[in-house]
Design goal:
Blueprint (H helix, E strand, L loop, with lengths): L1 E5 L3 H13 L3 E5 L2 H10 L4 E5 L1 E2 L2 E2 H11 L5 E5 L4 H9 L4 E4 L4 H23 L12 H14 L5 E4 L6 H10 L8 E5 L8 H6 L16 H4 L4 E5 L6 H13 L1 E2 L8 E2 L3 E6 L3 H6 L5 H7 L2 E4 L10 H16 L5 E2 L1 H9 L5 H15 L3 E2 L10 H23 L4 H8 L3 H10 L8
Parallel strand pairs: 1-2, 1-3, 3-6, 6-7, 8-13, 8-14, 9-10, 10-13, 15-16
Antiparallel strand pairs: 4-5, 11-12
Helix pairs in contact: 6-7, 13-15, 16-17, 17-18
Organism: candidate division TA06 bacterium
InterPro entries: AAA+_ATPase, AAA_lid_NorR, CheY-like_superfamily, Homeodomain-like_sf, HTH_Fis, P-loop_NTPase, Sig_transdc_resp-reg_receiver, Sigma_54_int
Keywords: ATP-binding, Nucleotide-binding, Phosphoprotein, Transcription, Transcription regulation
Length: 436
């Protein structure tokens, strides 16, 4: 596994590199933003350790750039200044986790191992032929959506899924793929909004080694990876007009050519696109190609926002309560009538994605009963951060106990806390010997 340490303190990098190397990680180093970006472009990095203060540079700015170039890369922010505001900002901008300096190396190792495992598990799940997307619904609005999806699944028609952020557009695309004749072939997703314009062509079509500055190895593009399967173009409305023309050409000609190559690659793929924008409006304003719009929207499906199918909330609540209770090894809590009414009456600007996060937070923060979901629009980044910290503590304690073969004194030593403190935490979080 390849880890990059991005920190301007050479002695700190050496110390961390020694520790990680002893734990069988291949370690790369960078002291500036430019060095970090260059190294990540040239090497397959599995995780980044990023210092908040990079000399005169700001680690938050580099975090933004890393998210643009590597949307899926696990990133741990390291900081000696762990304030609530900084941590909230880091998580909002895409850090997967953070750790305070001076660093507890055993805890860092647990965090790294956890994030890398999650990363590869997610990649495996996304490409697993047996992956069956679960869509929870009973409302007439969602029945219409699923009927439309079922009707088109067995064809190769292009599908355009529209809906607000968080409504489950990618989940529906996966559902269509799972019901199609291409089910056993790859489902490849790309978020067109997350890739810088100058990199989108190589991301989509691939590039030969040496095709441009920074192309140190041959890159296989998403079209090629999806061959014989389904390519999901998420947020297609964010593609530049130049990129739109190239996508249209690939769809019309059913072939692509990597940047720097003279060889054509024949394509046999199904295209599903998604957008949270009004593409017809963009067409009318000359910001989206008319020909591409009609090419990708043979079969349009609109997913309604959650506020328009609140009759699905009881089923969604049951599903996520059971899921997160099982995941955390807790009993399923009772939801009071007042708390349930909060869910029904809330506007859900973040839709099902927000709903899922709210339920997970509630299961973490409550044991036997949920009396409120704290659904104010101000919902608090501070409350949200406390929830994240609590989840982090539970996970780290469980990992330490596993590493110590359930020996609590050894686990306390790994965690750098007293035996008494660990016993208190185990009792507080109701962590049992059977943690599976």
């Amino acid at each position: 596994m390849n880890v990059i340490i991005i920190d301007d303190n050479r002695n700190f990098r050496v110390m961390l590199k020694t520790f990680l190397s002893e734990n069988n990680y291949t370690v790369f180093e960078a002291s500036t933003s430019d060095e970090a970006l260059s190294t990540i472009r040239e090497n397959p990095i599995d995780l980044a350790l990023l210092d908040l203060k990079l000399g005169s540079e700001n680690g938050i700015e580099l975090l933004k750039l890393l998210r643009e170039h590597q949307p899926l890369l696990p990133i741990i922010l390291m900081t000696a200044y762990a304030t609530i505001e900084t941590a909230v900002t880091a998580i909002k901008l895409g850090a997967n986790d953070y750790i305070q300096k001076p660093i507890n190396l055993d805890m860092l190792a647990i965090k790294i191992d956890k994030l890398i495992k999650e990363y590869y598990l997610n990649v495996q799940n996304l490409n697993d032929d047996k992956y069956e997307p679960v869509i929870i619904y009973k409302s007439e609005r969602m029945k219409e959506v699923i009927n439309l999806a079922n009707n088109v699944a067995g064809t190769d028609a292009t599908v355009l899924i529209s809906g607000e952020s968080g409504t489950g557009k990618e989940l529906l695309a996966r559902y269509i793929h799972s019901k199609s004749n291409r089910k056993g072939c790859p489902f490849v997703a790309i978020n067109c909004a997350a890739i810088p314009h100058e990199l989108i062509e190589s991301e989509l079509f691939g590039a030969e080694k040496g095709a441009f500055t920074g192309a140190y190895a041959t890159r296989v593009g998403k079209f090629e990876l999806a061959n014989h399967g389904t390519l999901f173009l998420d947020e297609i409305g964010d593609l530049s007009l130049n990129a739109q023309a190239k996508v249209l050409r690939a769809l019309d000609e059913k072939k692509i050519r990597r940047i720097g190559s003279n060889d054509n690659i024949a394509l046999d793929i199904r295209i599903i696109s998604a957008t949270n924008k009004n593409l017809k409006h963009k067409v009318d304003n000359n910001k989206f190609r008319t020909d591409l719009y009609y090419r990708i929207s043979t079969y349009p499906i609109v997913i309604p926002p959650l506020r328009e199918h609140t009759e699905d909330i009881p089923l969604l609540l049951k599903y996520y309560l059971e899921m997160f209770s099982r995941k955390l090894g807790k009993n399923i809590p009772i939801v009071t009538p007042n708390a349930f009414n909060e869910l029904i009456n809330y506007n859900w600007p973040g839709n099902i994605r927000e709903f899922k996060n709210i339920i997970e937070r509630a299961v973490i923060l409550n044991n036997e009963k949920i009396s409120t979901f704290n659904l104010t629009n101000e919902f608090s980044e501070k409350i949200n951060l406390r929830y994240r910290r609590k989840l982090e503590e539970i996970t780290v304690i469980k990992e330490a106990l596993k590493s110590a073969s359930m020996n609590k004194r050894k686990a306390a030593k790994i965690l750098g806390i007293s035996y008494r403190s660990l016993l208190y935490k185990i009792k507080e979080y109701k962590i049992t010997d059977n943690m599976d």
